[in-house]
Amino acid sequence: MADKTVRSTVVSRAVFLLQGSVREAAILKVCVLASGSSGNATFVATEKTRILIDAGLSFRELASRLAAIGEDPAKLDAVLISHEHSDHVSGLPVLMRKLKCPVPVYATHLTATTFAWDERAPRVETFQAGCRFSIGELEVDSFTIPHDAIDPVAFAFHTQGLKIASVTDLGYIPESIRYHLRGTQLLILESNHDLEMLKVGPYPWPVKQRVMGRKGHLSNDVVSEFIREDLDSSTATLVLGHISENNNHPELVRLVAAQALAARSLSTNLVIAVPRRQTEVFTL
Ligand SMILES: [Zn+2]
Ligand SMILES: [Zn+2]
Which helix (H) or strand (E) holds 196? Predict the structure, then answer.
């Protein structure tokens, strides 16, 4: 089985000429276009399938960030929505209106009930949290996450023996999620706040309680514990995102996670998704 996977992966990596040099074509291309409370969107593509996870950017911002990596909203095949909070869906109605060939929107049945379309509604493909479905060349696993939304999910994607996952907006990491994150080569994970900064920060107490709660967001310390205890050594790249601009700092996120990786002697490539900026492009 493992042998077959390796063989099919190798065979599918066509060699092509690019700018005079011979390179191996990537199977997967991933870019976190935006991450955090000011907007979330992640681009995932194979050679034939292009999808967006969440649509929390304005159309103009989305188009310009996709253009920066040689992509175009018009070429998207689907948009997946993790949950209905505005930082994940605020750009969705305009995106659907601007696309000449509207693409399907994938969301759970309950999340789909929260969508408000202004004129014509796009095709909405609903699924049950916990189900696996395919979009073109991508096999998608959806799984429930503990967060204060109607039916929030995270996603893992499989193609040609590769696996990546995107998991943000969750209050803690239950065993079921740890299971889903095994075997990922690229993991996008939330590292939302520093607990001390949150406690002394500007938010009103009820908001602090919400963020810290079991259905809130992950702290740097919880992520550190996850890295020390459960991060799979298969994870070649760990992208930490959804970083709070009030209660955290990208360099603090990097420091805490780097210490945890060092404690495991893991050589994982650690990338911090700085709020309001897109990351580099990851190819697998
Ligand atoms: Zn969010
Ligand atoms: Zn949320």
Answer: helix 195-200
Q: Report CA(86)–ligand 1 centroid distance (Å).
A: 8
Give the Å distance between the CA of 152 and the centre of ligand 2: 8
Q: Are the beta carbons of 153 and 142 closer than 8 angstroms?
A: yes
Let me know: does 279 contact 65? Beta carbons within 8 Å. Answer: no
Centre of ligand 1 from the C-alpha of residue 87, in Å = 5
- The arrangement of secondary structure in 27-283, i.e. its CATH architecture, is 4-Layer Sandwich (3.60)
pLDDT digit string (tens) for 233-277?
Answer: 999 999 999 999 999 999 999 999 999 999 999 999 999 999 999
How many Cβ atoms are within 10 Å of 58's Cβ, its own excluded? 14
Contacts of 149 (CB under 8 A, 6+ apart): 83, 84, 85, 111, 169
**Ligand showing the shortest atom-to-Cα distance for residue 148:** 2
User: If you measure from the C-alpha of residue 81 to the centroid of ligand 1, how many angstroms do you get, rounded to a whole number?
Assistant: 11
| Nearest ligand to the CA atom of 35 | 1
For the chain, what is the radius of gyration of the CA atoms? 18
0.85 exceeded by the pTM? yes
Q: Which residue has tokens 């911090």? A: 272
Helix pair 220-229, 250-263: axis angle to 10 deg: 20
CA of 148 to the centre of ligand 2 (A): 7
Residue 113 contacts by C-beta under 8 Å, 6 or more apart in sequence?
A: 150
